[in-house]
């Protein structure tokens, strides 16, 4: 079912998530709820902590060349570990937990990722471009970090001012 997405500055988003031990039915239900929630909110990535579950689980479902988000392109990534990374790339990121704010973030251009799937099978894959960016963005959530923490001092000031205004106006 569709779950509530926690929004900055909710303190739960700062929790450190823990590895999945049991690849069981409750994990599969979590993955299915995350997918329904992410798609309903028009996201392309979601970490479990964003719906209040501190587990190292993330979803990424990029849009294809025709601009379609197909479930066959869904990555369910559990207990991820970046084993190699190189290069540097800048991208304007957004996050369902910081709705309506976008800013440029610098991240590694290529990564080699080790992770488990919903059956507990281990995979090792290399990613670049938007997939590499999305993985790094979602893995920051697993450590309790949001992309706005990577902004320069001035950009962060701009964000905080904007965010307070929006909250005062009751959005
Ligand atoms: C108003 C509002 O909520 O705007 C949005 C902001 C972000 C998002 C989704 C962001 C998202 O999926 N981020 C995943 C992480 C990521 C960031 C950059 C590149 C790759 C991966 C969706 C929004 O809602 C709509 C309707 O567009
Ligand atoms: Co995010």
Automatic annotation (TrEMBL):
Task: Quote the function comment for this protein.
Answer: Removes the formyl group from the N-terminal Met of newly synthesized proteins. Requires at least a dipeptide for an efficient rate of reaction. N-terminal L-methionine is a prerequisite for activity but the enzyme has broad specificity at other positions.
The kind of enzyme this is, by top-level EC class, is hydrolase
Keyword annotations from UniProtKB, A to Z = Hydrolase, Iron, Metal-binding, Protein biosynthesis
Pfam families, sorted: Pep_deformylase
Q: Which domain of life is it from?
A: Bacteria
E.C. designation(s)? 3.5.1.88
* Name recorded for this polypeptide: Peptide deformylase
Its Gene Ontology molecular function terms? metal ion binding; peptide deformylase activity
Catalytic center residues = 138
Which metal ions or organic cofactors does this protein require, according to UniProt?
Fe(2+)
Catalysis performed (reactions): N-terminal N-formyl-L-methionyl-[peptide] + H2O = N-terminal L-methionyl-[peptide] + formate
Q: Which family does it belong to?
A: Belongs to the polypeptide deformylase family.
Binding positions for Fe cation per the UniProt entry: 95, 137, 141
Q: Does the keyword Iron apply?
A: yes
Gene Ontology BP annotations: translation
- Cofactor info, note text: Binds 1 Fe(2+) ion.
